[in-house]
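Hello Y.,

Per our agreement to keep a running log of every chain we model this quarter, I'm adding this entry. I've kept the format consistent with earlier entries: sequence first, then predicted structure.
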Amino acid sequence: MASPETGVLAARARALAVLRIRSTALAVALLPAAVAVVLFAGRASGHLGAGTGWDLARWIAGSLAVLSLLLAALVALVVARARPALSPSVPISEKSAPDLYRLVRDLADRLDVPAPSAIALTPDCDSWLEDRTHRAHGPPRRSRGAARGEARGTPEAPVLVIGSPFLWWMRVAELRALLAPVVAGTGPSAHPDIAAARRFIRGLDAAVAVAARARGPLRALPLRFVGRVARLLLRAGREHATIMERAVAAAASERAQTVDYGLRIVAQEQVGLAYAGWDRLLTRVALPAWRMGRWPSRLDAGVVSALTELSRRDRLANGFASRLGERPACDLLEEPGAIDRAASLLAARLFHGGPAEPGPDWSPVGWGQYPEEVVDRKWRLEAARLHRVLDNLPATALPAAPAPDPAAAPPLSYARSSPRMPADRSPVDHHPAGDHPAGDRPAGDRPAGDRPDGDRSAGAPSADRPEDRPAAPAPGPTLARVIDRLAQDERAGDLVAARLGAEVEREEREEAARQAARGGSAQDATVGVAWGDGMVAEGGLPLFPLQPPRTGRELLADHVTAMVCCAAVDTAGAAPGLDWLDGPALLVDGARRADLGRPVLSLVDDGDAEPLRGWLTTVGVRPEKPVRLV
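Predicted structure for the entry above:
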């Protein structure tokens, strides 16, 4: 088995190779100046001729020397001043987590490596070390001992970034075992050659980013040259840098073998479980709320519930639930709720692109309010969008709709179903043309060419003609209308799916434009976003979109499901609920109904409404009753 020192030596060899590339680039930049110095020195000493040819050579060499020195100075200035990208994270001060800092320092002492200079949390299932010593990142917080170490030429230790789901799901002993190989990486990081090679690579990478964002001819031309040089140097050193990082990781892993090795195996099992639960929580639970302008404020606490539910369902994970009696790692924090809130807001920015701060259109929601404020509202908004699309479909010759039941509840105002709809628009304007027989079309929707008695004028209809009188308000939006249209019109499914996709895409573009206007998704990568004590989020957000765009058929199925759920809540006493692994859920008699998907797909894909009508009868839903869309 190789020793940690072997890995460090291999990493140092590759670091020296990277530094040789830097030295070679410097030598190439200084070569014209060296030639010019030799020529002018030879002229002054009399060793070189004084003819016209020699004078021309001296001036050419001198001009090239000045140009090369200016370009080299430009590249060096941009590389030195460019701000390396930082991973978005929530900083944890020692005052807010003394026990966590103590655990990390004890771990570093056992590994005989320098302790990390600080600790930060990231809303993801990963942990790593990050160098934040660049002066553009702010003045480093050094202790007295760290200052003495820097005076001796020892680089400052990197920051330890920990995945926030680990703190809430893992136990203290598991977290210590998980962090052992990560903390062990501070040893190789303290080596001067490795640290210098990493700074050089990060500087080149930052310079490429600066050149890519250059605007204006005065800035773009010189920065484009800097970008080309930086890319050339990065290509030359890419292989050496990659092998160097692999050697550093191998050395850290070998050093961590002596610390909690058996417990590390259990901790790695928890990493896979945590990742699965975290992914389901984000894509199924958090994403619907983010799309509505709400962000769950306790995501890390929610991952515990999600993983507990996963442990209950999965026989392979049944033994993991017994761990919950041990001390959780989040107890190492003084105020876990406040840190969870900050990490949850950062997760919304990273995975969805929300604003950096809460506001009227970006407010937090607790898990207790999630069913009413997110699930029910999501269903109502999607049902309203579905009816708006149905309103705009071309007319079809369908059977006349049955007359409304006089004993039914009065129809609700459909005009309130969407904030984009004018308040003075009557319910008649929302009744689809296809729901009327050919001769009973509302006067307001009748084309000029279809007016009786050959009257093709666009003026107001005559009050003495019964066929031109305004039709009575149509009943409110019903599930029966949706089912009949999709089942009886072969074209309706494709048309509705396409128009739903177009409307959702338009709404997403409008939301992206609003975010860009308030700076939520157009942050310049060189400008940090202040957060708490100095957390920095970089680049265009979202950095990690959770889901690819949904197809029109998927959107149609979601919207029909939402309409069914609204009808079940309004007519059958059902209730919106939250499933920790599947997100919005329909509760009937307190139990989740998970059998709605197949009947809806039968209607959407095949136009067969019988399975859905049977499901509605079983649950007791009355599809002919109007539903509330707000």
